[in-house]
Amino acid sequence: MPRHLPLLAAAGALVALLPTGAANAAPTAPTSHPSQHSSGHPAWWPTVAHDRAIASDGASRNARLTIPRIGIRHLPVIAYRGSTDDAPGTKIQNRGIAAASIGRPGIGGVGPGGIGNYLVAGHRTSHGGVFGRTPSLPDGAKIFIDAGRWRYVYRVVRTRWVDFRSKHSLKLQRSAVPGHPGKKPNRAWLTLSTCATPEDHANGDYWTDRFGNPQHRIDKVAVLSRREPRP
Questions:
Q1: pLDDT of residue 40
Q2: Other C-beta atoms lying within 10 Å of the C-beta of residue 138
Q3: Which of 7, 44, 50, 191 has the greatest count of CB atoms below 10 A from its CB?
Q4: Topology of the domain covering 48-229
């Protein structure tokens, strides 16, 4: 192999790690894709001021969940005091609906549309498997939460795996800012959580807790992008 080829490969790898458009941008006049803010966020990403203006008071409320991309429509989401996938939450999910744990940061979350982390869990492989396809949601997918007179529109921004046998991993999931325990929230987040049972079983992991929850969760983290009158 010619000596210059490893150098070219290394340069190519470095370019691949740069943000979109960085490789072709002029040093003194960086450009961004028209569908993105200069910060690199998608164009629909709200400012903090806008986010606060469209957020709810965060009170505990039952809601309805709609995700057109995967065929979920008006699924009941029952609010309860507790932590994700505990006994009360599991009992709600066993009815073939979703459960939203409400409580102080690090244990539960806020109500629909609230500043903080709205935690919603549902079964994937049992009791109707209402969240059977949520792990397939791509970044940017819309999630609609109807509560009271409003519809809160969230957009998926990332995927997180949670280890149910790790207190630290659960703390990251349940924090007011997903993945950042102790950080004060200034946005309205949504964590949509379901089990990774098929993936765990494929890896030979059949551990469950006393409620039948497997070791791992697949979470879709979303941010509130707008609010509109409930249809």
A1: 60
A2: 9
A3: 191
A4: Sortase; Chain: A; (2.40.260)
Contact 223, 115 (CB under 8 A): no
DSSP the chain: --THHHHHHHHHHHHHHSPTTTTTSBTTB----TTB-TTSSBTTPPPHHHHHHH-B------EEEEEGGGTEEEEEEEEEES-TTSHHHHHHHTTTSEEEEESSBTTBB--TTBSEEEEEE--SSSTT-TTTTGGGPPTT-EEEEEETTEEEEEEEEEEEEEETT-HHHHHHHHSSSTT-TTPPP-SEEEEEEEE-HHHHHHTT---B-TTS-BSEEEEEEEEEEEEEE--
The answer for residues whose C-beta is within 8 angstroms of residue 81's C-beta and 6 or more apart is 60, 88, 101, 102, 103, 108
